[in-house]
Structure formats: C-alpha cells, structure tokens
Design a protein that fits this description.
Helix 4 runs antiparallel to helix 5. A two-stranded antiparallel sheet has the order 1-2. It has a two-stranded antiparallel ribbon with strand order 3-4. The protein has a two-stranded antiparallel sheet with strand order 5-6. The protein is mainly alpha-helical. The longest helix is centred in the N-terminal third of the chain and has 26 residues.
C-alpha cells in the first residue's frame, strides 16, 4: 500500500466516523459533552432542540479535499445555530409571527358559552399564541439573540477520535508489511 493510499483510507475513515459523531450531537442535544442551551420559548416544551423537521440534521455533508475533510451545511440558518449570534427582525418575519399567532389562537378549545377551556392543550396553545404575539409586536430592526448550539466543529473529542483513527491505520499498515531479508 502506498502512502497516498494510506492517507486516503485515513481520510475516509475520519469522514465516516466524524459524520456519525456530528449526527449523534442531535441525539445528545449537545456538542459532545457541552449541552445545548434549553429553549426559552413555550413552543414545543420538552421537545428536542434543532430537530423539529430534522432538515438541519440531514443537511450536514462532507467532502474530502486533497488532504483535508470539510463538513458543511448549505442551509442558510445552519451557521447561526452552530455559532450563535443575533438576527434582525424584518417585516417579513413579523408577518410570519402574526400568521403563527392567528394560527395558534384559532385552535383554542372553547366552551359552549365561548369562554376558553382550562384543559392542558388550550393552556399550551394560549401560551404559544402569546409567544407569537410577543414576537409579532417586536419592532422591525430589533434583534433576536440565537444561542450557540454547535453541532459540527473542532473539539477535544474530535481531535482524540482523529488521533485514534490515524494510529489504528498506521499500526495496521506497519503490522502488515512483509520484509524479505534474504541475502543475494
């Protein structure tokens, strides 16, 4: 086996292993051992973070470029979730927030006299509707802080895994070398 073949095998092994580990971050709800900040909004309390449709999770892909591996997502919102930051409220966002408010507030359970029921679903919907109303009433240009919930990147666990893969591949290579030490 030639050196370039060893390097390609190492890169492929790292690519497969790290893709699996980055995917597991969504199950762990953490970047390895660093837990993601919980939701502050009342929408879907107790549900998994960043896994509403799993579109973000499925969007992560990787490619080998010469002697390196690049992990990325083409989704426009992947960077803000991975790195955290602030976004400015736009008119289009406000329209979406009003839509969500009317969508959730129209689903309230009501009694025959028109008053709201006090059941768990109606209480949850009214809390969610209040959240969307709060968001819709924000001024255009105000900022929303998105916490960092890293799912791909460098970490001590990544470095350890890469080191182990390199060592295993090199050990396999050196253990399978056949030496011919005969005098001619």
């Amino acid at each position: 086996m030639k050196t370039d073949q060893i390097i390609k095998k190492i890169l492929r092994d790292i690519q497969v292993e790290m893709a699996d580990e980055f995917d597991k971050n969504f199950e762990r709800q953490a970047f390895f051992s660093e837990a993601w900040q919980r939701r502050k909004s009342p929408i879907k309390p107790g549900r998994a973070i960043l896994v509403d449709t799993s579109k973000l999770r499925r969007s992560i892909n990787s490619e080998i470029r010469e002697n390196s591996i690049v992990f990325k997502s083409e989704l426009p919102y992947s960077a803000i979730h991975n790195e955290g930051g602030e976004i400015k409220v736009t008119e289009k966002m406000k329209k979406f927030f009003w839509y969500k408010y009317y969508d959730t507030s129209g689903s309230f359970g009501r009694r025959k006299d028109g008053t709201l029921r006090k059941d768990k679903r109606t209480v949850q919907l009214s809390t969610e509707a209040e959240f969307w109303k709060f968001m819709a009433l924000m001024k255009v240009g105000s900022t929303i802080k998105i916490p960092k919930r890293q799912f791909i990147g460098i970490a001590p666990e990544v470095e350890k895994t890469v080191r182990e893969i390199i060592e295993d591949n090199l050990n396999d290579f050196f253990n399978n070398i056949e030496f011919d030490i005969t005098e001619k």
